[in-house]
Fold these 2 entries.
Entry 1:
Amino acid sequence: MGKSKKIILVGILLLLVIGAVGYLFNYNQEGFTGSRIKNPDFYLLDIERMNGTDLHTMELHEDDVLQIHMKTEKGSMYMEMKAPDGTAIYQGNGKEITEFTIKIPENGVYTIVAEANHAKGLIRIQRKEKME
């Protein structure tokens, strides 16, 4: 093989390596595409594509009931709801159980942590109206 062919081959390989590194770097960047709503009684992540973590807090009262819908369509998702003392009252991935309710054990500020890795899916948490 001639010297000029080796230089061209090395140049092409170098461009391929640079392109692959750039793609992988971009692919793993944190980001969110979709709809996000956060308010005192409602939290929604309608995810078209998400890499990273999203947080939301809700001030809740003992015996409040939250209706939760979580569904992972693509990639991986993980959600955790933490009580005011930091203990987890729910942890899940939206694959086995997708719709359920949680009864709040005590007054305080609860933290919702949503993590996603190349994910598409939905997380919806809504405080249910109390029947009196």
Entry 2:
Amino acid sequence: MGFWIFMFIMNLLIPFTMIGFGRLFKKKSPDKINYVFGYRTTMSMKNEDTWKFAHQYCGTIWFKVGWIMLVLTVIAMLFLIGRDMDFVGNWGGAITMVQCVFLVGSIFPTERALKRTFDKDGKRKTGC
């Protein structure tokens, strides 16, 4: 049971990180464009407007997806109670990999939204 508790806690790290940073980024992007912290892509770092937009957009995705993943992770882990360590470890690892796909996958809709809203130089398109 000890290993199950460990895996349960580890599997909640990504959803809680997405919820926390999603909430933070929805409300406020990092003050300055930087190469260390925040949603950092070529398009998001064009100017302050793209920087703030990308954080708000990605933050919204992370917040929503984080809550969904949290619920699904808890449900999935409940099915692993009482199983042997190898089984729990393998399924726990698989859950983490799926979570990583959604964490990194948030780049695609965010970049599409940036391209719909801004031109290649980071200026807002008319009508947006």
